Fold:
Amino acid sequence: MILRQRREFAGSYCGSRRKLLNFLANGMGVSEPLIQATLLGEAIENGPMAVFVADEQGKYVAVNRAACVLLGYARDELLRLQVAEVARYEEAAGDWTEMLKTGTRVGISTLTRKNGSTLEISYVAGATTVAGMPVYVSVDVGAA
Structure:
């Protein structure tokens, strides 16, 4: 029964919040992995904090809506950039190297927007693995 419900959910869920709420109301807990992935994905995509995901070479491989708005880029534009093209400040290369070495970094960064203006943000960044690929996730935790 539960496996059938999961398949039905996976096959029919197309971004409909009503379907998700009905699915949850019909006895499936929010601890189900598929539901967790969906909820977290939507929360990160639509959340208020900018989230940047880069590969080991520093190329952005995923960004959320808040990151695009913060920097003034369309998503496809931002995904063509490297971290070094956005985080352009004196210590940026050293900060990136330290994060690659230690797997984590907390600090203040100066980011360059599409229009050339800059802003300082506080961030938390760390290494993780997604679909077998090592990535580095950086979250803007507010103005510096």
User: Anything to note?
Assistant: The radius of gyration is 18 Å.
